[in-house]
Amino acid sequence: MTRVLVVAAHPDDAELAVGGTLALLADRGAEVTVALATVSEFRADLRPLRRAAAEEAAGIIGHRIRWMAEGHYDQVEQLPDYRLVELVDAVVEEIDPAVVITHWEGDSHGDHVRLARSVLASSRRWPGTGLVQFGPNEYRTPLHGEFTANLYVPITEQLERKKKALRCYRYPGQGFRAPDEDAVDLLARTHGLAVGVSAAEALLIRRIRWNSALPGLV
Length: 218
Hints:
Elements: E1 3-8, H1 13-27, E2 31-36, H2 47-61, E3 64-67, H3 81-95, E4 99-103, H4 110-122, E5 130-134, E6 151-154, H5 159-166, H6 181-195, E7 200-207
Parallel strand pairs: 1-2, 1-4, 2-3, 4-5
Antiparallel strand pairs: 5-7, 6-7
Helix pairs in contact: 1-5, 2-5, 3-4
């Protein structure tokens, strides 16, 4: 079975950026794991709700959750760089994926940037494993337009599932801005126009070895 690992800073990052891709991979028989560096809720009473939302979303998409550092942290900046690289090293060794998918180091969010750089640093230890990145989930910054994709994944059949998973993060008192479903839909259709389908997600291939490529996608 092909194993795919997503390394994300916060719950909902993976669903926003590549929820359709992960659903497609799961549909095609891949074992998909999303490793989360933080829980990203500062109120103690909301942390269990955020964790539960991530698990519920995973059930909809078809992946499993792996909480890095046992989910003790709420921001990546709480972790020293060396420790963050160690955590990435450990989860890649544990999962042994064909492909790792993570943030782009040009992202506008500091946590995303630090995690992306840590994954890039860790990648020296797994040269035979593919590395793919997704762009910023914040659409309102200039950097969003600077992400240049070279891989488009059609998600026409998975788009509604992606949006359903994102709705899991709407719970009372949530300490973050709820995902904009209209923007998710519009962006998927915009990416779809680039490759002649009704909906797609855009990624950047940084390294792919032919015999460890995403199954059926490249």
